[in-house]
Amino acid sequence: MVQKRDEKDLEEYSISKDAKRMLKRAWIEDVETVWDRLERQEPQCGYCALGSSCRICAMGPCRIDPFGEGPQKGVCGANADVMVARNLARTIAAGASAHSDHGRDILETFYHTGAGETEGYDISDVDKLERLAQEYGIETGDRNPDEIAEDLGWEMMEDFGTRREQLTLANRVPESRLKVWEDAGITPRGIDRENVETLHRTHMGVDNHYVNILLHALRTSLSDGWGGSMIATELSDILFGTPKPTESKANLGVIDPDQVNIALHGHNPMLSDVIVRASQDEELQKLAEEKGAEGINLVGLCCTGNELQMRRGIPMAGNHLMQELAIMTGALDAMLVDYQCIMPGVVDVAKCFNTEVITTFDKAKFHGATHISFDPERGMQIGRKIVRKAIENYENRVPERILIPDDPVDMMAGFSVEAILEALGGTPEPLVEAIKDGKIRGAVGVVGCNNPKIKHDYGHVKLTRRLIENDILVVVTGCSAVANGKAGHMTPEGAKLAGPALGEVCESLGIPPVLHMGSCVDNTRILNLAAALADFLETDISDLPLAGAAPEWYSEKAVSIGTYVVASGIYTVLGTYPAIYGSPNVVELLADGLEKTVGATFDIEPDPERAAVLIRRHIEKKREKLGLPFNRPENISMPEPEST
Ligand code: BF8
């Protein structure tokens, strides 16, 4: 039973009109959502929230009393430092594994495409294929792209194993950064190796020093950022096309009551990209018309949505907290999912609205969903079968229950590094000059999830607005891109919302002040851009006026991302409290100690107004150090914490 709430409470849940309208419907019609389940979990376990509980072995579960009165050690003798560090390291490994396994799936498809063993895939970006092949020492010359892809794919698989001392793509960082990693002993070697070693080290009785555990956790995250995720992005571009600026739309208004609607949800584009082409099949279009629909409408959710919006301009229905609400429009005939960030709860909501939830990866089945096993060897065939299934479900819709809550908003996507450089005339120089002059004071990646503990989209939108108002360029990925798109930050007209200097730069280039760089694995585009800027200035990434922020993060993947961003030299502010406060030593290491080791630290600030001040002060400090015109950081005043 969903708790009845007052309509005025809606303002506490989300800043998005479409989300609030659907939540109201959920309350009226007694449909359970993520917010109800959070409420039922409260109060959540305090020991777990502090990170000072352990269920790694069967002598436990154990906990440490933060007030010093109860137990201060687990049964094995682990203190709070070890418990918190082990838990955090495992969180990072889980996130890094998720990204890297996604990367491996793309890599296998890429390799088999080169070998001529897939259906529905091609090499779309031959230039990028050749550039990447050269990085891996694969001969290009006059060779056929498929042959190059087969050899390159085989070679890249070595990055997952143990036969390298350093990941190939880590060569993209400046020498100074490689030296930092070498000195700290955190140069990433094999992707699988670092993840397996984390699980080994955190088994009871192996690594019992919190600093040593956390250094390896940094290395594990680097195997994600400069390994698994980067491989996913590079090869997705080669297979499906490197994104170029493209116009699109966002919010639940992109769902069309007159068409068969298929929501594509998850992360891996290897299925959804085939679906885009399958849905254009004339026979299937005709079938949709025979069923009484005007056509087939694809909409994105979460990062699969970002992948499709970046490359194909497919409209975006919403981010993480919108997945159940999208079904509640009553107009989704199918929700097609691959993996990651798909709440098991969608199956129950779907039953109330006759939406078919179709799972597709054998490693990601849901009880109560229809499973159609996807295999790239028969990609197009399976793609057509899935689209047909959605069309056949159209007749089960209940038209009186359809509720589309808002009109869609325009937004731009498609800012790959290649596209940004092209807009700048092929070189980072104009961007560097704008930073030097202070027209752009710095750049910040605002990334990551939604979390029902934070007002939906508020953290992303408020933080981004404050940064652009202060002439700081913002690049976004993941659920942050959706939030900012819906808020109107991502059209060239959005330049009016920026400070005068940034606004002028954006207007002259015809770009928004907030650039969509893709899905969460595409945070590696931000790493590549940062490395290119550092190279151009012949300095280290940690010297640049850059920062990262994840104002509403929830997932293990986000922890891995934040960690590899810091380990790459970029200061990062988190908006949700991580489970580390059970160990003051771990907190001190992450918030301060890492400065000496990797030249960057974490800050944690749930209030986006205050997070913006922390970031502005950081950027001004970096500008001062580089001898660029700066505002005195201490003159940037910190607002009082919000009462909410
Ligand atoms: O990978 S931002 S909620 S959808 S984890 Fe998930 Fe977080 Fe959204 Fe994309 Ni990323």
UniProtKB/TrEMBL annotation:
A GO molecular function held by the record: nickel cation binding
InterPro entries: CO_DH_a-bundle (IPR016101), CODH (IPR010047), HCP/CODH (IPR004137), Prismane-like_a/b-sand (IPR016099), Prismane-like_sf (IPR011254)
Reactions it catalyzes: CO + 2 oxidized [2Fe-2S]-[ferredoxin] + H2O = 2 reduced [2Fe-2S]-[ferredoxin] + CO2 + 2 H(+)
Entry EC no(s): 1.2.7.4
Cofactor(s), by name: [4Fe-4S] cluster; [Ni-4Fe-5S] cluster
The keyword Chloroplast appears for this protein: no
Annotated keywords: 4Fe-4S, Iron, Iron-sulfur, Metal-binding, Nickel, Oxidoreductase
Biological process annotations from GO: generation of precursor metabolites and energy; response to hydrogen peroxide
SUPFAM superfamilies given in the database record: Prismane protein-like (SSF56821)
UniProt enzyme class: oxidoreductase
Binding site for [4Fe-4S] cluster 1: 45
Residues reported to bind [4Fe-4S] cluster 2: 54, 57, 62, 76
Binding site for [Ni-4Fe-4S] cluster: 267, 303, 341, 449, 479, 520
A Pfam family per the record: Prismane
Keyword match Iron: yes
Family designation: Belongs to the Ni-containing carbon monoxide dehydrogenase family.
Subunit-level organization: Homodimer.
Role of this protein: CODH oxidizes carbon monoxide coupled, via CooF, to the reduction of a hydrogen cation by a hydrogenase (possibly CooH).
NCBIfam families listed in its UniProt record: CO_DH_cata (TIGR01702)
Protein name, as recorded: Carbon monoxide dehydrogenase
Source organism per UniProt: candidate division MSBL1 archaeon SCGC-AAA259I09
